[in-house]
Design a protein that fits this description.
With 184 residues, this protein is an alpha+beta fold. It is built from 7 helices and 3 strands. The relative contact order is 0.15.
Length: 184
Amino acid sequence: FGFFNSLFKNSKYRNLVTGNQKEIKSISLKDIKDVYKTFYCPNNMFLTVTGNINPYETFAWIEDTQKQFKSNNNRIEKIIPKEPYKVNEEKVIKEANIKTPNVKIALKIPRKIFKDYSDLEIRVYLNLLLDMNFGITNSFNEELMKNKLITDLGCSSNIYDDYVIISISFDSNYYEQVLNMVND
């Protein structure tokens, strides 16, 4: 979670999904009921029915059951705060009780650079490029493993609102040497 906190300054992705302890303690029963009434309604859900059923009886039961829900015609406005291009923190060192240090490197790239590509195309192309350069069958990865410089190397790309994030992570007791090699 600290990884996303260092990447994003305003984005919802910088916070824990569940919130922090102070935020959780401040939630009231009214807040919970409001969320339930707003989001747990038929126009925000889908139903899958399987098995040896009579479709006419099942459809009638569904229609009857849905009558108990009050229609929620409130439009939910999704607010996406403006996220600066610059990362929130360029370098973060966290102390932890782990056997092998873990390093995570990220690139925060504006989505608009890839304007001619769909989100799926971006993920496929970037993950293919990352696998070719850092994947388990790549000579770079094999060299690092053979020389016992790393115990693990992973890479991924994903899209978070207006940004494409490329990340490379590895576990190594020689992390400065490996970091230089990855950067090269």
